[in-house]
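Hi Y.,

Following your request, here is the sequence exactly as I used it, all 122 residues.
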Amino acid sequence: MMERMRNTIKNHSDFKTDRAHPYMSNGLFAIRTRRAKFPGDARYGLVVTKHNFRFAVHRNRVKRILRDWIAYAEKYMCDDMDYVFYAYPEILGDGITRDVGREKMVAGLREIKWRHDKKQSK
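Below is the corresponding structure, written out as C-alpha cells. Let me know if you'd prefer a different format.
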C-alpha cells in the first residue's frame, strides 16, 4: 500500500513566506518555508507561473515533475514546516533527468533541514 503524501497548500495567503524562515535556491527551483499552520500535518505548495512557462502543457509537466521529486525526497522534510516550491524555466532543460532532479531536491531539503535545525539550536 502506498503511503499518503502530504497535503497541499491551496489558500493564497498560506503561500506567503518571509526571509526569517529557512530558504534555498538552485538553478531548477527555490524552496521557501514557514512554520506549519497545522503542526504534525505539514503541507507543500507549488508555484509554476505563466511568466516562466507560457503554455499550460509545460506548467502541468513541471508540476508533475516537482511532485515526483517531492515524493522521492519527502523523508527529508520537517513535520513542523510548510514548504513552497518555485519552479524556474531551467527545470525543463535538456540535461535534467529524473535522477538529477531527485538529487537536487534531496540536497535542497537537506540544506533547509540543516538551516532549520541550526536556527532551533540557537
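The longest strand covers residues 29-35.

Thanks again,
Q.
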